[in-house]
Amino acid sequence: APVEVWEKIGVNIEKGSKGEHYLGHGMAASALSLSVMSLLALFEKCSTQEAIAYGFLTRGAFMTEMLLNGKYKELGVPSAPHLAIYLAILATSFALLSGKFEPMNAAKIISVLLSGHGALLFLNPRTNDDDKTKKMAKIDGGYMFISSVFAAFLAFGVDPVRAMGFTSIACLPLMLSVFDLISADEIFGLSPSTWLVAL
């Protein structure tokens, strides 16, 4: 479970809290979406269009759970915009997999929209919760940004290897935020500051 995994590196999260959503569901959706897209695109397991589609569908699976469980309402955010994005993601994924309706134009719009949303959440977490929860929301936004910006690079025709290189650079501020949240003295035998120097 995500809560137990985070506890191993000194991040204590209360089950059922907003923090669990941000570092569990939110971050997991972006991280898994990026993993699927990058694996398929970098190893040429399918076309770039299909890689983007499967990445979008991975995010859509997490959003399905959130919408069905009423999690957005529970978090105090409106469900309507998320439902609109959800439907747009599904429609775009269908277009990408079928090759109809100028799919890459739709992919560009969706990926840029999600990149912008993630960047805004990273720069300014819109929550009235405590500082720790705000940091968790910031990390969620950062992961959404890097996942979506990789999709954007692919949609705009950037070579997958170059796209991953640019995305890796964008990861650096996110890593700083993750280490800022960690309270453990050591992570896998090294201090957080040592990890920062190594990275």
Structure characterization notes:
The protein has 199 residues and is mostly helical. The protein has one domain (2-198). Helices cover 76% and strands 0% of the residues. It has nine helices and no strands. Helix 3 (48-68) packs antiparallel against helix 5 (79-98), helix 6 (103-123) packs antiparallel against helix 7 (131-155) and helix 7 packs antiparallel against helix 8. The longest helix is centred in the N-terminal third of the chain and has 25 residues, at 18-42. The two termini are 26 Å apart. The model has no long low-confidence stretch (mean pLDDT 84).
Any chance you could write out the topology, listing elements then pairs?
Blueprint: H1 2-7, H2 18-42, H3 48-68, H4 71-74, H5 79-98, H6 103-123, H7 131-155, H8 160-181, H9 192-198
Helix pairs in contact: 2-3, 2-7, 3-5, 5-6, 6-7, 7-8
Keywords: Membrane, Transmembrane, Transmembrane helix
Transmembrane segments: 22-43, 83-101, 107-125, 137-157, 163-182
Brief write-up:
The chain crosses the membrane at residues 22-43, 83-101, 107-125, 137-157, 163-182. The chain is an all-alpha fold.
Q: What distinguishing features does this structure have?
A:
199 residues; mainly alpha; 9 helices; 76% helix; globular; transmembrane helix; membrane; transmembrane
Mean pLDDT: 84
Rough outline: globular
Largest sheet: none
User: Radius of gyration over alpha carbons?
Assistant: 17 Å
In what range is the share of β-strand residues? under 5%
Low confidence ranges: none
Order of helices and strands: HHHHHHHHH
- Given the structure, what is the number of helices? 9
Keywords: Membrane, Transmembrane, Transmembrane helix
